[in-house]
Amino acid sequence: QVQLVESGGGLVQPGGSLRLSCETPGGTLEYFTTAWFRQAPGKEREGIACISGSDGLTSSADSVKGRFTISRDNTKKRVYLQMNSLKSEDTAVYYCAVGGDCSGRNPQYYWGQGTQVTVSS
Predict the structure, then answer these.
(1) Do residues 82 and 68 lie in contact, with contact meaning Cβ atoms separated by under 8 Å?
(2) Is-contact 9 20, C-beta < 8 A?
(3) What share of the chain is helix, strand, coil (3-state, %, to 5)?
(4) What is the sign of the dihedral through the CA atoms of 9, 86, 76 and 47?
(5) CA pair distance 105, 119, nearest whole angstrom
(6) What is the pLDDT of residue 2?
(7) pLDDT tens for residues 33-76?
(8) What are the strands, taking DSSP E only, across 40-105?
(9) 81-101: pLDDT as tens digits
């Protein structure tokens, strides 16, 4: 079992920014495909961004493209989601997940506990 911990959520005004972090205590995420998902109340879970464990290729959903960026730090201990130009519709619980790949056909199988992001004035 891979333990994942998300952090960085909170309350932010529309147009603001947040940086979410995902890490696995005692190890690295170097060999794992890592993805960010979000789920708002009453809505399906949505894949937001993904970074491949094999070649570092990144991808993101159209709904956040140009605003959100996924990256992995130089130590491979953390994966980030930089969120800019936040909108009220970005309000959701955000989850980090690892495993599988970024194709959408092979799902992630280890999940963090989630961190709440609320965008409101």
Answers:
(1) yes
(2) yes
(3) 0, 45, 55
(4) positive
(5) 31
(6) 85
(7) 999 999 999 999 999 999 999 889 999 999 999 999 999 987 88
(8) 46-51, 58-60, 68-72, 78-83, 92-98
(9) 999 999 999 999 999 999 999
